[in-house]
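Meet the record:
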Amino acid sequence: MSTRRFTDDLPEPDLSVKPPAAPSPAARPLSAPPLQRPQMPQRSSNPAPAAPRPQAQPAAPSSQGRVVGPYLPRTLTQVINEADDKVVQGDLVDYLPLPTGFDPLDGLIGGGLRKTELILLGGAQGLGKTIATLQIARNVAMRPDHYAFYLSYEHTEAHLMHRLLCLESINPPEIDLANGLKLRDLYQQIVAQRAKKFMGRESGQGSLQAILRDMPQTAPALSRLLRYSDRLILLKASPAVTNLTAIREMTARLADATGGNLTVFVDYLQKVAVHPERPRDENDKVTIIVEGLKDIAMTLDVPIFSIVAADREGLKSKRIHLFHLRGSSALDYESDIAIIMNNKYQILAKDHVAFNPYNAKQYRNWVVFTIEKNRAGKAMIDIEFELHAQHFAFNPRGQKVQQQLIDDKIIES
Protein backbone atom coordinates (compact mmCIF):
# COMPACT_ATOMS: atom_id res chain seq x y z
CA MET A 1 0.00 0.00 0.00
CA SER A 2 1.48 3.38 -0.95
CA THR A 3 1.79 6.00 1.76
CA ARG A 4 2.66 9.66 1.89
CA ARG A 5 5.27 11.81 3.54
CA PHE A 6 4.39 14.12 6.40
CA THR A 7 7.32 16.51 6.58
CA ASP A 8 5.66 19.87 7.02
CA ASP A 9 4.54 21.26 10.34
CA LEU A 10 0.94 20.68 11.23
CA PRO A 11 -1.39 23.51 10.15
CA GLU A 12 -2.15 26.45 12.36
CA PRO A 13 -5.85 26.11 13.17
CA ASP A 14 -8.01 29.14 12.52
CA LEU A 15 -10.58 30.24 15.08
CA SER A 16 -12.83 31.57 12.36
CA VAL A 17 -15.42 29.20 11.00
CA LYS A 18 -14.52 28.09 7.51
CA PRO A 19 -14.74 24.83 5.60
CA PRO A 20 -11.55 22.74 5.52
CA ALA A 21 -9.66 22.31 2.29
CA ALA A 22 -9.97 18.91 0.67
CA PRO A 23 -6.94 16.65 1.27
CA SER A 24 -4.36 16.70 -1.50
CA PRO A 25 -4.53 13.61 -3.71
CA ALA A 26 -0.83 13.74 -4.50
CA ALA A 27 0.93 10.60 -3.25
CA ARG A 28 4.39 10.84 -1.74
CA PRO A 29 6.46 8.21 0.07
CA LEU A 30 5.99 8.37 3.83
CA SER A 31 8.60 8.40 6.51
CA ALA A 32 7.77 8.78 10.17
CA PRO A 33 5.75 11.92 10.92
CA PRO A 34 7.69 14.18 13.29
CA LEU A 35 6.23 14.41 16.77
CA GLN A 36 5.91 18.19 16.67
CA ARG A 37 3.40 20.24 18.54
CA PRO A 38 1.22 22.29 16.19
CA GLN A 39 1.20 26.04 16.67
CA MET A 40 -2.09 26.99 18.28
CA PRO A 41 -3.70 30.39 17.64
CA GLN A 42 -3.78 33.09 20.29
CA ARG A 43 -7.20 34.02 21.60
CA SER A 44 -8.34 37.39 20.43
CA SER A 45 -9.39 40.06 22.91
CA ASN A 46 -12.47 40.61 20.73
CA PRO A 47 -13.86 37.15 20.09
CA ALA A 48 -15.91 36.59 16.99
CA PRO A 49 -19.67 36.33 17.40
CA ALA A 50 -21.36 32.96 17.34
CA ALA A 51 -21.57 31.51 13.88
CA PRO A 52 -23.18 28.48 12.25
CA ARG A 53 -21.40 25.18 12.68
CA PRO A 54 -18.80 24.51 9.97
CA GLN A 55 -19.71 22.31 7.05
CA ALA A 56 -17.42 20.37 4.79
CA GLN A 57 -16.68 21.91 1.41
CA PRO A 58 -18.50 20.24 -1.48
CA ALA A 59 -16.26 18.08 -3.63
CA ALA A 60 -15.81 18.28 -7.37
CA PRO A 61 -16.41 15.45 -9.83
CA SER A 62 -13.45 13.16 -10.46
CA SER A 63 -11.81 12.72 -13.85
CA GLN A 64 -14.02 9.67 -14.45
CA GLY A 65 -17.12 11.75 -13.84
CA ARG A 66 -17.83 10.24 -10.44
CA VAL A 67 -18.44 12.65 -7.58
CA VAL A 68 -15.83 12.35 -4.82
CA GLY A 69 -16.45 13.74 -1.35
CA PRO A 70 -19.17 14.10 1.29
CA TYR A 71 -22.51 15.91 1.19
CA LEU A 72 -23.15 15.42 -2.54
CA PRO A 73 -25.69 12.99 -3.94
CA ARG A 74 -24.41 9.95 -5.80
CA THR A 75 -26.18 7.16 -7.56
CA LEU A 76 -25.76 3.63 -6.30
CA THR A 77 -23.89 2.88 -9.50
CA GLN A 78 -21.33 5.58 -8.65
CA VAL A 79 -20.92 4.17 -5.15
CA ILE A 80 -20.39 0.67 -6.57
CA ASN A 81 -17.84 1.96 -9.09
CA GLU A 82 -15.84 3.77 -6.39
CA ALA A 83 -15.86 0.71 -4.14
CA ASP A 84 -14.85 -1.43 -7.12
CA ASP A 85 -11.88 0.83 -7.87
CA LYS A 86 -10.65 0.51 -4.28
CA VAL A 87 -10.85 -3.29 -4.32
CA VAL A 88 -9.05 -3.47 -7.67
CA GLN A 89 -6.26 -1.30 -6.23
CA GLY A 90 -5.99 -3.58 -3.21
CA ASP A 91 -7.43 -1.00 -0.81
CA LEU A 92 -9.43 -3.17 1.61
CA VAL A 93 -9.32 -0.95 4.70
CA ASP A 94 -13.08 -0.40 4.52
CA TYR A 95 -13.58 -4.15 4.95
CA LEU A 96 -10.92 -4.90 7.56
CA PRO A 97 -11.57 -3.70 11.14
CA LEU A 98 -8.63 -2.48 13.19
CA PRO A 99 -8.20 -4.62 16.35
CA THR A 100 -7.89 -2.82 19.68
CA GLY A 101 -5.82 -5.69 21.06
CA PHE A 102 -8.34 -6.30 23.85
CA ASP A 103 -9.88 -9.79 23.74
CA PRO A 104 -12.80 -10.63 23.73
CA LEU A 105 -13.76 -6.98 23.17
CA ASP A 106 -12.71 -7.03 19.52
CA GLY A 107 -14.84 -10.06 18.72
CA LEU A 108 -17.92 -8.48 20.30
CA ILE A 109 -17.66 -5.17 18.38
CA GLY A 110 -17.21 -6.71 14.95
CA GLY A 111 -13.46 -7.30 14.96
CA GLY A 112 -12.29 -3.88 16.12
CA LEU A 113 -12.48 -0.23 15.08
CA ARG A 114 -13.83 0.75 11.66
CA LYS A 115 -13.47 3.87 9.59
CA THR A 116 -16.15 6.59 10.01
CA GLU A 117 -17.09 5.19 13.45
CA LEU A 118 -17.20 7.13 16.72
CA ILE A 119 -16.34 4.95 19.73
CA LEU A 120 -16.93 6.28 23.24
CA LEU A 121 -15.40 5.05 26.50
CA GLY A 122 -17.03 6.36 29.67
CA GLY A 123 -16.84 5.89 33.41
CA ALA A 124 -15.90 7.46 36.71
CA GLN A 125 -12.48 8.86 37.60
CA GLY A 126 -9.72 6.46 38.55
CA LEU A 127 -10.98 3.44 36.64
CA GLY A 128 -8.28 3.54 33.97
CA LYS A 129 -10.01 5.23 31.01
CA THR A 130 -6.81 6.98 29.94
CA ILE A 131 -4.80 3.82 30.59
CA ALA A 132 -7.09 1.76 28.35
CA THR A 133 -7.25 4.41 25.62
CA LEU A 134 -3.50 5.00 25.48
CA GLN A 135 -2.92 1.24 25.47
CA ILE A 136 -5.30 0.84 22.52
CA ALA A 137 -3.52 3.69 20.71
CA ARG A 138 -0.23 1.89 21.37
CA ASN A 139 -1.68 -1.36 20.01
CA VAL A 140 -2.85 0.45 16.87
CA ALA A 141 0.55 2.11 16.34
CA MET A 142 2.33 -1.24 16.73
CA ARG A 143 0.92 -2.20 13.34
CA PRO A 144 3.55 -1.28 10.72
CA ASP A 145 0.91 0.13 8.37
CA HIS A 146 -1.08 2.30 10.78
CA TYR A 147 -0.76 5.53 12.77
CA ALA A 148 -2.42 6.72 15.97
CA PHE A 149 -3.06 10.40 16.75
CA TYR A 150 -3.56 10.89 20.51
CA LEU A 151 -4.88 14.26 21.73
CA SER A 152 -4.69 14.68 25.49
CA TYR A 153 -6.29 17.64 27.23
CA GLU A 154 -4.94 16.55 30.64
CA HIS A 155 -1.40 15.21 30.19
CA THR A 156 1.75 16.40 28.45
CA GLU A 157 3.42 14.37 25.74
CA ALA A 158 6.37 13.64 28.06
CA HIS A 159 4.06 12.28 30.77
CA LEU A 160 2.35 9.99 28.25
CA MET A 161 5.78 8.78 27.12
CA HIS A 162 6.73 7.95 30.71
CA ARG A 163 3.44 6.06 31.15
CA LEU A 164 4.19 4.04 28.03
CA LEU A 165 7.63 3.12 29.38
CA CYS A 166 5.96 1.73 32.51
CA LEU A 167 3.46 -0.15 30.35
CA GLU A 168 6.21 -1.60 28.17
CA SER A 169 8.11 -2.74 31.24
CA ILE A 170 5.48 -5.45 31.82
CA ASN A 171 5.08 -6.07 28.07
CA PRO A 172 1.32 -6.63 27.54
CA PRO A 173 -0.10 -9.12 26.80
CA GLU A 174 2.73 -11.08 28.41
CA ILE A 175 2.31 -9.15 31.73
CA ASP A 176 5.76 -9.70 33.18
CA LEU A 177 5.19 -8.10 36.60
CA ALA A 178 8.59 -9.21 37.89
CA ASN A 179 10.25 -6.58 35.70
CA GLY A 180 7.47 -4.02 36.09
CA LEU A 181 8.48 -0.40 36.46
CA LYS A 182 6.55 2.16 38.50
CA LEU A 183 6.49 5.81 37.51
CA ARG A 184 8.08 6.96 40.76
CA ASP A 185 10.94 4.46 40.39
CA LEU A 186 11.47 5.54 36.79
CA TYR A 187 11.80 9.17 37.80
CA GLN A 188 14.18 8.33 40.65
CA GLN A 189 16.46 6.29 38.44
CA ILE A 190 16.62 9.00 35.78
CA VAL A 191 17.47 11.66 38.38
CA ALA A 192 20.10 9.42 40.03
CA GLN A 193 21.84 8.64 36.76
CA ARG A 194 21.86 12.27 35.70
CA ALA A 195 23.27 13.27 39.08
CA LYS A 196 26.19 10.86 38.58
CA LYS A 197 26.96 12.50 35.26
CA PHE A 198 26.76 15.96 36.83
CA MET A 199 29.20 14.91 39.55
CA GLY A 200 31.68 13.68 36.95
CA ARG A 201 31.35 9.96 37.58
CA GLU A 202 32.14 7.84 34.53
CA SER A 203 29.13 5.58 35.15
CA GLY A 204 26.68 8.47 34.84
CA GLN A 205 24.76 8.97 31.61
CA GLY A 206 23.89 12.33 30.08
CA SER A 207 20.87 11.87 27.81
CA LEU A 208 17.51 10.29 28.65
CA GLN A 209 17.83 7.59 26.00
CA ALA A 210 21.35 6.74 27.19
CA ILE A 211 20.08 6.45 30.76
CA LEU A 212 17.18 4.22 29.72
CA ARG A 213 19.42 2.01 27.57
CA ASP A 214 21.94 1.66 30.38
CA MET A 215 19.47 0.41 33.01
CA PRO A 216 18.52 -3.30 32.76
CA GLN A 217 14.95 -2.60 33.89
CA THR A 218 14.27 0.12 31.31
CA ALA A 219 16.31 -1.03 28.31
CA PRO A 220 13.77 -3.64 27.11
CA ALA A 221 10.89 -1.19 27.67
CA LEU A 222 12.63 1.49 25.59
CA SER A 223 13.39 -1.01 22.84
CA ARG A 224 9.72 -2.03 22.62
CA LEU A 225 8.55 1.61 22.70
CA LEU A 226 10.87 2.61 19.84
CA ARG A 227 9.27 0.00 17.58
CA TYR A 228 6.18 2.18 17.19
CA SER A 229 7.32 5.62 18.39
CA ASP A 230 7.33 6.98 14.81
CA ARG A 231 3.69 5.99 14.35
CA LEU A 232 2.22 7.29 17.64
CA ILE A 233 1.61 11.05 17.30
CA LEU A 234 1.00 12.91 20.56
CA LEU A 235 -0.48 16.34 21.21
CA LYS A 236 -1.00 18.23 24.47
CA ALA A 237 -4.30 19.80 23.48
CA SER A 238 -5.60 23.00 25.05
CA PRO A 239 -9.20 23.36 26.30
CA ALA A 240 -8.88 27.03 25.36
CA VAL A 241 -7.77 26.78 21.73
CA THR A 242 -7.87 23.16 20.46
CA ASN A 243 -11.38 23.27 19.04
CA LEU A 244 -13.18 21.13 16.47
CA THR A 245 -11.77 23.15 13.58
CA ALA A 246 -8.22 22.55 14.84
CA ILE A 247 -8.87 18.82 15.29
CA ARG A 248 -10.37 18.61 11.80
CA GLU A 249 -7.44 20.39 10.15
CA MET A 250 -4.78 18.35 11.95
CA THR A 251 -6.63 15.10 11.28
CA ALA A 252 -7.02 15.97 7.59
CA ARG A 253 -3.29 16.65 7.26
CA LEU A 254 -2.34 13.43 9.05
CA ALA A 255 -4.88 11.33 7.17
CA ASP A 256 -3.51 12.67 3.90
CA ALA A 257 0.09 12.03 4.97
CA THR A 258 -0.59 8.47 6.13
CA GLY A 259 -2.76 7.44 3.21
CA GLY A 260 -5.81 7.31 5.47
CA ASN A 261 -4.23 4.75 7.82
CA LEU A 262 -5.01 6.82 10.90
CA THR A 263 -7.01 6.44 14.11
CA VAL A 264 -7.77 9.48 16.30
CA PHE A 265 -7.96 9.33 20.10
CA VAL A 266 -9.45 12.18 22.18
CA ASP A 267 -8.86 12.38 25.95
CA TYR A 268 -11.39 13.65 26.76
CA LEU A 269 -14.52 14.79 24.89
CA GLN A 270 -15.90 17.39 27.31
CA LYS A 271 -12.60 19.31 27.23
CA VAL A 272 -12.70 20.01 23.49
CA ALA A 273 -12.98 23.76 22.90
CA VAL A 274 -16.12 24.89 21.08
CA HIS A 275 -15.40 28.57 20.34
CA PRO A 276 -16.52 30.63 18.49
CA GLU A 277 -19.83 28.89 19.19
CA ARG A 278 -21.50 29.75 22.50
CA PRO A 279 -23.35 26.76 23.91
CA ARG A 280 -26.33 27.41 26.14
CA ASP A 281 -25.27 24.85 28.76
CA GLU A 282 -23.11 21.77 29.30
CA ASN A 283 -25.48 19.49 27.38
CA ASP A 284 -25.48 21.83 24.39
CA LYS A 285 -21.67 21.92 24.49
CA VAL A 286 -21.43 18.13 24.51
CA THR A 287 -23.91 17.94 21.64
CA ILE A 288 -21.78 20.32 19.54
CA ILE A 289 -18.62 18.34 20.28
CA VAL A 290 -20.00 14.85 19.70
CA GLU A 291 -21.70 15.90 16.46
CA GLY A 292 -18.46 17.54 15.34
CA LEU A 293 -16.33 14.48 16.12
CA LYS A 294 -18.76 12.19 14.34
CA ASP A 295 -18.71 14.50 11.31
CA ILE A 296 -14.89 14.46 11.29
CA ALA A 297 -14.88 10.67 11.45
CA MET A 298 -17.28 10.38 8.52
CA THR A 299 -15.92 13.09 6.22
CA LEU A 300 -12.24 12.23 6.76
CA ASP A 301 -12.89 8.47 6.81
CA VAL A 302 -11.14 7.68 10.10
CA PRO A 303 -12.18 6.01 13.37
CA ILE A 304 -12.36 8.33 16.38
CA PHE A 305 -12.06 6.88 19.89
CA SER A 306 -12.98 9.32 22.65
CA ILE A 307 -13.14 9.26 26.45
CA VAL A 308 -16.30 10.68 28.03
CA ALA A 309 -16.74 11.84 31.62
CA ALA A 310 -19.69 11.03 33.84
CA ASP A 311 -21.92 13.76 35.26
CA ARG A 312 -22.45 14.43 38.99
CA GLU A 313 -25.52 12.23 39.26
CA GLY A 314 -23.66 9.41 37.56
CA LEU A 315 -20.82 9.64 40.05
CA LYS A 316 -23.32 9.21 42.89
CA SER A 317 -24.82 6.04 41.43
CA LYS A 318 -23.62 2.56 42.34
CA ARG A 319 -23.16 1.63 38.71
CA ILE A 320 -22.56 4.09 35.87
CA HIS A 321 -24.45 3.67 32.61
CA LEU A 322 -24.45 5.52 29.30
CA PHE A 323 -27.28 7.77 30.46
CA HIS A 324 -25.06 8.99 33.31
CA LEU A 325 -22.59 10.61 30.92
CA ARG A 326 -22.74 14.35 30.30
CA GLY A 327 -24.94 15.08 27.30
CA SER A 328 -26.07 11.45 27.23
CA SER A 329 -28.82 11.82 24.60
CA ALA A 330 -26.42 13.17 21.97
CA LEU A 331 -23.75 10.64 22.94
CA ASP A 332 -26.20 7.78 22.58
CA TYR A 333 -27.47 9.01 19.22
CA GLU A 334 -24.15 9.86 17.53
CA SER A 335 -21.90 7.07 18.78
CA ASP A 336 -21.50 3.77 16.97
CA ILE A 337 -20.07 1.96 19.99
CA ALA A 338 -20.34 3.04 23.63
CA ILE A 339 -18.43 1.22 26.37
CA ILE A 340 -18.93 1.99 30.06
CA MET A 341 -16.33 1.09 32.71
CA ASN A 342 -17.14 0.16 36.32
CA ASN A 343 -15.07 -1.31 39.12
CA LYS A 344 -16.10 -4.94 39.47
CA TYR A 345 -15.99 -4.97 43.27
CA GLN A 346 -18.38 -2.01 43.43
CA ILE A 347 -21.02 -3.56 41.17
CA LEU A 348 -21.06 -7.15 42.38
CA ALA A 349 -24.53 -8.12 43.57
CA LYS A 350 -24.13 -8.34 47.35
CA ASP A 351 -27.16 -10.59 47.73
CA HIS A 352 -25.81 -13.16 45.31
CA VAL A 353 -25.59 -16.60 46.89
CA ALA A 354 -21.93 -16.90 45.93
CA PHE A 355 -20.92 -13.47 47.25
CA ASN A 356 -18.24 -13.53 49.91
CA PRO A 357 -16.81 -10.21 51.15
CA TYR A 358 -13.37 -11.74 51.66
CA ASN A 359 -13.21 -13.40 48.26
CA ALA A 360 -14.73 -10.33 46.64
CA LYS A 361 -11.68 -8.21 47.50
CA GLN A 362 -9.79 -9.93 44.69
CA TYR A 363 -12.06 -8.08 42.25
CA ARG A 364 -10.90 -4.60 43.29
CA ASN A 365 -8.34 -4.58 40.50
CA TRP A 366 -10.79 -5.79 37.87
CA VAL A 367 -12.75 -3.41 35.66
CA VAL A 368 -15.98 -4.36 33.90
CA PHE A 369 -16.34 -3.02 30.35
CA THR A 370 -20.04 -2.97 29.43
CA ILE A 371 -20.84 -2.60 25.74
CA GLU A 372 -24.00 -0.51 26.10
CA LYS A 373 -24.31 0.44 22.44
CA ASN A 374 -23.07 -1.64 19.54
CA ARG A 375 -24.11 -1.13 15.95
CA ALA A 376 -21.95 -4.11 14.94
CA GLY A 377 -23.67 -6.67 17.17
CA LYS A 378 -25.17 -7.38 20.56
CA ALA A 379 -25.21 -4.77 23.32
CA MET A 380 -25.39 -4.92 27.13
CA ILE A 381 -22.58 -7.46 27.36
CA ASP A 382 -20.19 -7.33 30.33
CA ILE A 383 -16.55 -8.30 29.96
CA GLU A 384 -13.77 -7.82 32.51
CA PHE A 385 -10.07 -6.96 32.41
CA GLU A 386 -7.48 -6.85 35.18
CA LEU A 387 -5.94 -3.43 35.79
CA HIS A 388 -2.28 -2.99 36.73
CA ALA A 389 -2.61 0.67 37.62
CA GLN A 390 0.91 1.18 38.94
CA HIS A 391 2.23 0.12 35.53
CA PHE A 392 -0.46 2.00 33.56
CA ALA A 393 -1.64 -1.13 31.79
CA PHE A 394 -4.52 -3.56 31.49
CA ASN A 395 -4.10 -7.26 30.90
CA PRO A 396 -5.74 -7.29 27.44
CA ARG A 397 -6.76 -10.92 27.86
CA GLY A 398 -10.18 -10.57 29.41
CA GLN A 399 -13.31 -12.67 29.78
CA LYS A 400 -17.04 -12.42 30.10
CA VAL A 401 -18.25 -11.70 33.63
CA GLN A 402 -19.45 -14.85 35.35
CA GLN A 403 -20.85 -13.34 38.54
CA GLN A 404 -24.12 -11.57 39.09
CA LEU A 405 -23.89 -7.79 39.00
CA ILE A 406 -26.21 -5.16 40.40
CA ASP A 407 -29.21 -4.14 38.29
CA ASP A 408 -30.47 -7.71 38.73
CA LYS A 409 -28.66 -8.80 35.61
CA ILE A 410 -26.92 -12.16 35.40
CA ILE A 411 -24.26 -12.58 32.76
CA GLU A 412 -24.10 -16.03 31.23
CA SER A 413 -20.81 -17.64 30.32
Summary: DSSP finds 13 helices and twelve strands in the chain.
